[in-house]
Amino acid sequence: MTIEPTEPQPGNQFPQGYGQPPQGYGQPPYIPFPPAPKTNTLAIVSLVSSFFVSLVAVITGHIALGQIKQRGEAGRGLAVAGLIIGYVGIAATALFVVLAIAFAAAFGAIIAAVAGGAAAPYPFGSDTSTEAPSEPDSLTGRLGAADFDAGYLAVGTGPMTVDVYFDPMCPYCKQFEDANGAQLRAAVDSDAITLRLHALTFLDPASNGTDYSSRASAALTCQATLRPEATLAYLAALYSNQPAENTPGLTDDELVSLQGADPGFADCVASGRYLTWSQDNTKTALNGPIPGAEIDSIQGTPTVLVDGAQYQGPIDDPQAFADFLAGRL
User: Fold this and answer.
1) Shortest CA distance to 86 belongs to which of 53, 62, 45, 63?
2) Which of 89, 103, 214, 269 is found 20 to 30 A from 40 (Cα to Cα)?
3) Residue 144 near residue 227, CB atoms below 8 Å
4) Which residues are registered as beta bridge partners of 142?
5) What DSSP string runs through 211-277?
6) Mean of the per-residue pLDDT values for the chain?
């Protein structure tokens, strides 16, 4: 008996139990990867702005780190880089500003010192203000040889008026004193002239921060108020012990030792009683007007006026100055 093979039926190529692929055979199922997290926008802004505006980089960097932590976004490395570069930029800017301020201050001090050291017959600058101890509010009227309202020290009662504008540290003023001081004192003693002394302070920047010109002018005023008859003697002592420019000058104790008589003199010098008055006189001399003078303001030292007329001869020639005095009689 012959058994005919059974023909496979359409749609069933593999009869039940025969030739069917085992369970699970074939390609594994496709499982898609999760999408990459989005890069935080502010992290990018922080990094880019760190090269231009450091403060913006720091602010946006901190905000970006907070958003990344909250939202699970990417870009932490960008934000951290922006923060680091931003903080470095801020530190560099701060350092630059500090150095610039220090340089400006140092440069200003050098210019002031050079300007002060280059003075007299010295043209001098317009700002001679210096901080000083407070003075009594009653600096008016006259006390001894000091005329506080007019701004000078006056000795002698002669009919001819001689005004001498000087700075105690000015070497050219010392040259004038060495050449002509004796004849001026003789003219005062003989009542030929009234000598008016204008002690200026524009060389303060040339005394290494001690304001020597102001202190010496104030000490001369102390002498004029306490011992007016010895005003010219103290002025001569100041010139005999004149310090060089760009040195600290004499100390207050040394200024006191030049007088050495009146116990109230030391207190007057130590108190700085006439510092501001001396400095104000300097401003008045510089800005003018000069009452009764043929010049509007003082442009340098020494400046000598005889009845308002300016002496323009040699400062170290006593005969030339004597002839000028005689010509004004």
Assistant:
1) 53
2) 89
3) yes
4) 147
5) -HHHHHHHHHHHHHHH-GGGHHHHHHHHHHTPPPTTS----HHHHHHTT-S-HHHHHHHHHTTTHHH
6) 84
* β partners of residue 162: 195, 306
Interatomic CA distance for residues 316 and 183, integer angstroms: 13
Render pLDDT for 17-37 as a digit per residue (tens, 0 to 9).
444 444 444 445 544 556 678
Examine the pLDDT at 59 and tell me if it is beyond 80: yes
Strands 193-199 vs 160-166: parallel, antiparallel or unpaired: parallel
Question: Which residue from 170, 126, 189, 118 is spatially nearest to 304, judged by alpha carbons?
Answer: 170
Contacts of 110 (CB under 8 A, 6+ apart): none
Which stretches of the chain are DSSP H helices?
41-49, 54-71, 76-117, 171-189, 212-226, 231-240, 252-257, 263-271, 275-287, 318-327
Inter-axis angle of helices 76-117 and 54-71, to 10 degrees?
160
Cα separation, 179 vs 238, whole angstroms: 15
pLDDT in tens, 187-220: 999 999 999 999 999 999 999 999 999 999 999 9
List b or e across 139-177, with b for residues whose CB sees 16 or more CB atoms inside 10 angstroms: beeeebbbbbeebbbbbbeeeebbbbbbbbbbebbbbbb
pLDDT for 308-321, tens place per residue?
Answer: 999 999 999 999 99
Rounded mean pLDDT, 79-83: 87
Q: Give the whole-angstrom CA distance, residue 124 versus residue 101.
A: 26
At a CB cut-off of 8 Å and minimum separation 6, what does 101 contact?
none
- Sign of the C-alpha dihedral, residues 139, 142, 145, 146? positive
pLDDT-based confidence at residue 139 (cuts at 50, 70, 90): confident
